[in-house]
Amino acid sequence: MHDQPTSQTRRGPDEIREAMNHDWEAGNILMGEIFRRGFDSYAAHVQDIAGTFALEDRTVRCIDEGTPGGIHFAGSGILADFEDAVAWMQAAAVDGVTSHTGCGAANLYAQRSGRDLSEAEKLGIEHAQRIAAALGVPYRGHITKLKRPPEYHDARVIYVDDTGTFDSDRSSGLPRGLLISRAHLNPAYALQEVEVAISITLGDHGFGERFTPASPLMLAAVRPSRSPERDAALMQIAGKFSGRVRVDVFGAPDA
Predict the structure, then answer these.
(1) What are the φ and ψ backbone dihedral angles of 24, each rounded to 5 degrees?
(2) Tell me, what's the pLDDT at 228?
C-alpha cells in the first residue's frame, strides 16, 4: 500500500488522487485473484487465516478499516438506538469503547440530528464516553492515528462478521476492509450498517467511481465454519448498485 503521510503532512487534491490511484492499482492483483477463485477457496489457502479468528481484545471500535481489532459498530454504536447499543455491547462482553477522528458515522449522525458537521467529532467522542459509562467499562480514548490514509478509505471489501471473533488485519493475505460485527447486532440493524459502509466506500471519501461491475466492491459474509451458502440479505442490498457491489462468503477453517 501507499506510504501513509504523517499527521503534519498536508497533501493537495492532485497528490491525494495520485495516492488513491496507486493504492487502487496495488490492490487489483489480490482482488482479481479473489474474484477468480471465490473468497472461500482463496481464504482457505491463506497461510495465517486461522489467526484472523482470534481477537486480542474486546474493545468497541468503529467499522472503519483504520481502526482494526476488537468489536465493530458504526461510530461505536452512534447510529443505533442508545439502549439497543448498550444491550448488544453488554451481550458481547465488551471491555472498553473508543471513538476516532474522521468518523463517517459521526458525520451521518450529525446530519440526521440537524447538527453542523463541524460538531461531528465532538458528538462521536461524547457518544463513546456516554456509552462506556452506561456499560461500566473504560472509555479508551479517541483514535487519531488511523491505519489507513487520513484523507480517504482504501477498503476494497466490507466484511460482515457472523463469528464475533474476526479481525482481517491479522492476516497480510486478506484485503483491507471495513468490518461490521453482525454477530453482535440485531439482524435488521446490521443491514443498515452495511448500507452505511457501502455509502462510505462508494462515495467521495472511498474509492468511489473506481468500483465498477468489472472491479466491484465486495461484501464478504464471514461464517463460523466453511460453508458455501449464499447470503440472501446481502445479495438484496448489492442488487441496488447495478453490479458495482458483489457478495461472497467465506468461513473459518475447520478445526
Answers:
(1) -60, -50
(2) 66
